[in-house]
Amino acid sequence: MRRILVLAAVLLLVVVAGAIAGGRQEADDVRVVTVATDATWPPMQFIDENRELVGYDIDLMRAVAEAAGFRVEFRNTAWDGIFAGLATREYDAVISSVTITEERRTTMDFSEPYINAGQVLIVERTTTGVTELSDLVGRQVGAQIGTTGSFEIDAVDGVELVTYDELGLAIADLANGRIAGVVADTPIAADYVLQNEEYSGRLMIVGEPFTQEFYGIAVRRGNTELLELINEGLRQVLASDIPAQLEDKWLR
Fold it and tell me: Strand locations in the chain, DSSP E?
């Protein structure tokens, strides 16, 4: 009986160690890494008409997994709780148009950056005299809650921040005249303004990107083993022609 108990304890330690490292092993010995994403940000990550999870980030993460030799499983997760779930080990990593910031670095670790996506201002096409956020003092401007876009709005005195659970709700309010503008990452803004048939004739991007921001893949703080594995695959992908292919597919 004692030998059985000792063996059980050893097996438990192995399972716990694997969970701490991030990911799990399947029967074919291929490591599985669970990755959360908020699938409401086309063209980076969204659910298409076939109910499939698609987008730039999704294709990139699959390419990283293939290059590094692990299998990725995605979990569609609401943005407002996505980092809390990472901290409580509900999944191993997050790829969801996550901007690398110093504040976020205090609670999680990031891969090497994979795309530069500054913030831009979206307004109705009939708007005149507006080229930057400060031109909207005294008015309401929307952004998805907890994003760097919301932080930028909040930093401008006199501009009222209105937050939304999903960026699409902010865009809809803008198109219907309920708010004066929306701040979003360049790729997502371009999708809504240039490629979305519902809004392309009604909205426009004004001015130039007013921040320099880089997306990264987030992992739990201190999970260096998983971070190194992701970076290994990411470096191979970034050195290939895959980023150019993804840009042609999703951002143009």
Answer: 24-25, 31-37, 40-41, 45-47, 53-54, 71-76, 93-94, 108-110, 115-116, 119-124, 140-144, 160-164, 181-185, 203-206, 214-215, 218-220
